[in-house]
Amino acid sequence: MPDFVTSIDHAWANRVISAVDLAFSLEGPAFAASLRLALMDAHRDPNCPRAAQLMGGEHAGTYRRLPLLGPRARDYDLLLIGWPPGHHTAIHDHQGLEGFELMLDGQLIVESYVIDTAPRLSLLPLNRTMLEAGQAEHFGGNTHAHRCINPSATEPALTLHIYSRHLMQCQLFNHDTGGQWSASSCELRSEPPATTLTPRTTAVQR
Question: Which residues of the chain are under the pLDDT cut of 70?
Fold first, then answer.
């Protein structure tokens, strides 16, 4: 099984990075529309990484966060996430950041919630979406939370994630048997980046 860093095609990664750079120069709905248009066929590229390629060998059964950019190479985060069969996250937020999640390989169920704090913390179910390769979710805001589930018991899945700033931690939401919700902080850890790019003189901000 090839190592992650050597198995990512740089031309594919650079195409993705260029598309994200362009999207962050746009405002409002044009941001997500630009990403969908530029990346909807990224999974069809023969050089696109595959879930089995990144989730086999010593990584079998392991949840992976795989940055495509070196530290602080951009003002945004860009990473691949590998989902083992049957894996599911806790319900979590993204610290109010704008995000974009693109399915590259396999399937993923995304359950979205609205965070309500009055009169006490509660999470209200919003929708449940099944993502197939080439489909994406655009999300953000201080009241958004979701959880992700790989519905396959046998096949890994792979997604591309974009966050409008560097996402270092998130809140995890749980409820007890009495229906009371609570939140706890979780530090996010990623593997070393697959590519190292020189930061631009003028960083894209959003």
Answer: 1-7, 194-206
Cβ atoms of residues 60 and 87 within 8 Å: no
Residue 69, C-beta contacts closer than 8 angstroms, at least 6 positions apart: 17, 77, 78, 79, 193, 195, 197
- 25 sits in which H/E element: none
What tokens does 158 get? 């792979």
Pairing of strands 77-83, 157-163: antiparallel
pLDDT the model gives residue 185: 96
Structure tokens at 134: 């080439």
Could you please report the per-residue DSSP string of 61-106? T--EEEESS-TTSSSSEEEEEEE-TT-BPPEE--TT--EEEEEEES
Structure confidence by residue, pLDDT tens digits, 34-55: 999 999 999 999 999 999 988 8
Instruction: For the chain, list the domains and their CATH numbers.
Output: 4-187 (2.60.120.10)
In terms of pTM, does the model score above 0.85? yes
